Amino acid sequence: MAEVLVLGAGSVAPPLVRYLLEQPDVNVTVASRTVSKAERIIDGHPRGTPLSLNVKDEGQLEELISKHDVAVSLIPYTYHVTVAKFCIKHGKHMVTTSYVSDEMKALDGEAKAAGVVILNEIGLDPGIDHMSAMQVIDDVQAKGGKVVSFRSTTGALPSHEANTNPMGYKFSWAPRGVLLASKNNASWLQDGRQIDIPGEQLFENYTVQDVPGVGSFENYPNRDSVPYKEIYGLKDAQTVYRGTFRMTGWCETLRKIVALGWLSEDRLEGCKTYGDVTRKLIGAGPDEDLTAAAAGFLNLEMYATTIKRLNWLGLFSDKPLPEDRDNPLDYLNVISLEKMEIGKNDRDMIVMFHEFGAEYPDGRKERITSTFVDYGIVGGDTSIARTVGLPAAIGVKMVINHKITEPGVHIPVTKNIFGPVMAELEAIGIKFIERRE
C-alpha cells in the first residue's frame, strides 16, 4: 500500500486527493493548517486521513514526510525546498505544481544520490503547457522537421457569461500572486532577437489576439521565455514566446494601478480609507477632487474607462481600510477579493493556445495551432483546480507505480512523462484541438 502525503488543502487539492483515493492501493494523508478543510476533502473515505499541520514546525513536517512514500507539496512555494530536503534525507519522492527555483535546481545532485524523484511543474501552467507543447514538438521532430517559431499563451479567466465586472477577472484564490506578477520582468526571442522588458513596463507590451472560436484577449509576456529554447529542445527556433491571456482592458488598468503605487509593500501610516491611500500615494491635497487628481496624475481623461474601473474597484472611495493590514498591496489584495471573487454560480475558463512554425526537409512549411478550452463546473471543481490537480495526481501515480524512476529534479518535458500524462488527461476530457495548415 503506497502512502501519499498531501501538504495543503487549498482549491486545487480536492480533485487531486479524490483521484488518488480512487486508486486501489493508495492511502492519502491530507495535512493542512485548518484540519476542517482536509476533512471536507477526504469526506470520510476509509483510506484518507486528515491532519492539522503548521508547516513552520519543521519537526512535525519532517516526521510526516518520513512516514510516507511521496510528498505532494501544495503549500506556498517558499516551503518547497524545505520539503525537498526532508524528502532527500529520508529517501522519499516529491511532486509539486510550482516552478523550479534555483534553490530547487541545486538539489538535483543530492536527489540523484539519494535515489529520489522530485517532479515539479506538473500542473496547468506550468505543467499542461509544457506537456502539450512537447507533444507537437516531438511529433514534428520525429517526422524530420524543425520548429522555427513557438508561441504559447495561457489564461485562467472567468467564462464569458461570468465576466460580469469591469475588470474582466475573478479570483478563486488570494489575489496577491496575480497582483505581484505585475512586477515581473519579461524576456523572449522574436525573429532571432532577444527582447527584455522591465517589470514596470510589462503591461505596456501586450498584443490583442484572437483565439478562433473562443474570443479576443490581451496577451502579455510571461516572465523569461528564453530558457525554453533549450528546455523544449528548440535549437532551430527564432521565436520563443510564452504569454498570459487576460480580458481586454486588464493591461492598461493594471499598468495604472502600478503607476499609482498600489503595489507598494511599504508600510503606510495616517490613512483610514482606500481614498486616503490613493490621495497619499499621488500627493493630492485634502481639498482636491480625488478622481480628477488621479486622472491628472495618470494623464487620463476623467471619462477614461480605466478611471471608471479604478473607481468601481474602490480606490477613490471612503471604504475603511482593513485593520490587520498596513501597506497598499495588502489593502489592494483585500478589496480585490471582495469585489472580484468568483461566485458559487460562476464558471471559470482556461484558454491555452500554442502556435508553431515548422519546416521540413522537402521544403514544406507548416503552421500548427493547438487549442485547449475548459470550463469549471458550477457547484463543483473549478477548471483551474482540475487542470492543476489532476496532472499532479497522475504524476504521483506514475511515481508510485515506478513509471518515473530516474532520480533528480525534473519537469515533465520528456516523453516517458508527458506521453502517459497527456494520454490520461485526454481520456478524462482535458483535450487539445490541433490544426495544421
Short recap of the structure:
The chain has 437 residues and is an alpha/beta fold. It contains 16 helices and 16 strands.
Short key terms for the protein model shown above:
single chain; 437 residues; alpha/beta; Rossmann fold; seven-stranded parallel sheet; 16 strands
Task: Describe this structure as you would to a colleague.
The protein is α/β, with parallel strands linked by helices and 437 residues long. It has a domain at 2-124 and 383-430: NAD(P)-binding Rossmann-like Domain (Rossmann fold), CATH 3.40.50. Helices cover 35% and strands 23% of the residues. It has 16 helices and 16 strands. The protein has helices spanning 13-22, 35-42, 58-66, 80-90, 102-105, 108-114, 128-142, 176-180, 228-231, 250-260, 274-282, 290-297, 305-313, 328-340, 383-400, 415-427, and strands spanning 2-7, 26-32, 48-52, 70-73, 93-96, 117-119, 146-158, 186-190, 193-197, 207-211, 215-221, 239-246, 348-359, 365-375, 408-410, 433-436. The strands form 3 sheets. It has a 7-stranded parallel sheet, with helices on both faces. The radius of gyration is 23 Å and the shape is globular. It starts with a strand and ends with a strand.
Secondary-structure topology with pairs:
Elements: E1 2-7, H1 13-22, E2 26-32, H2 35-42, E3 48-52, H3 58-66, E4 70-73, H4 80-90, E5 93-96, H5 102-105, H6 108-114, E6 117-119, H7 128-142, E7 146-158, H8 176-180, E8 186-190, E9 193-197, E10 207-211, E11 215-221, H9 228-231, E12 239-246, H10 250-260, H11 274-282, H12 290-297, H13 305-313, H14 328-340, E13 348-359, E14 365-375, H15 383-400, E15 408-410, H16 415-427, E16 433-436
Parallel strand pairs: 1-2, 1-4, 2-3, 4-5, 5-6, 6-15, 7-12
Antiparallel strand pairs: 7-13, 8-9, 10-11, 11-12, 13-14, 14-16
Helix pairs in contact: 1-15, 3-4, 7-16, 10-13, 11-12, 15-16
